[in-house]
Design a protein that fits this description.
Number of helices: 7
CATH architecture: 3-Layer(aba) Sandwich
Order of helices and strands: EHEHHEHEHEHH
Distance between the termini: 10 Å
CATH topology: Rossmann fold
Structural class: alpha/beta
């Protein structure tokens, strides 16, 4: 029997009470129910400095960037919940992508991204649920050889969408999370077969 597909799940936010952290936790649990082995990552724990090409040239990748790349390489796909900052990608997520995209000596270009599959999610207090930001994330990931699933989850009015225990109030929104993460697991299983 083939081993379970491995998914790295994280939110593009550092805020403790982030709606996107709540959402990615729900997505990670749904992916596990669908049969995946999921690693839930907290970007804050990586302590990534702002990307600086001079610092990279002089000191190499910081420890957090190496850890992120190792996790990305070890997993078959990603589940990313990204907040929308001014209609675009969060600086935290963009910085993580920038560091993880940097090759180390003898490493293939885009080793952490090429051939990976990702499902995208977003939760926002706004009326669009982070939709505009996801378009930006989708374009960036697609350009670095990631297969981005066409379906995505957006939770509008996120400040009203979650129960105190972190679950979603709306059954249809929970179904969307289950469907998108289930599709991610299915695609990864087919690619791994």
């Amino acid at each position: 029997m083939a081993s379970a597909v491995k998914i790295l799940a994280f939110a593009g936010s550092m805020r403790a009470g982030s709606f996107n952290k709540k959402l990615v936790k729900l997505g990670a649990a749904a992916a596990e129910r669908a049969g995946a082995q999921v690693t839930l990552l907290e970007l804050r724990d990586l302590a990534l400095p702002l990307y600086d090409g001079d610092a990279e040239q002089q000191q190499g990748l910081p420890a957090g960037a190496r850890q992120l790349k190792e996790l990305m390489i070890a997993n078959d796909g990603f589940l990313i919940s990204s907040p929308e900052y001014n209609s675009g990608i969060s600086g935290v997520l963009k910085n993580a992508i920038d560091w993880a995209s940097r090759p180390e000596p003898g490493e293939k270009s885009l080793a952490a991204f090429a051939g990976k599959v990702v499902a995208l999610m977003s939760a926002s207090p706004g009326a669009f649920g982070g939709l505009r930001g996801l378009a930006n994330v989708r374009a960036i990931l697609g350009n670095i050889k990631v297969l981005v699933l066409p379906e995505q989850v957006t939770i509008a009015k996120a400040n009203e969408a979650f129960n105190p225990d972190g679950s979603l109030k709306s059954e249809s929104q929970q179904r969307s999370v289950e469907e998108v993460t289930g599709h991610l697991v299915q695609v990864l299983e087919k690619l791994k077969a």
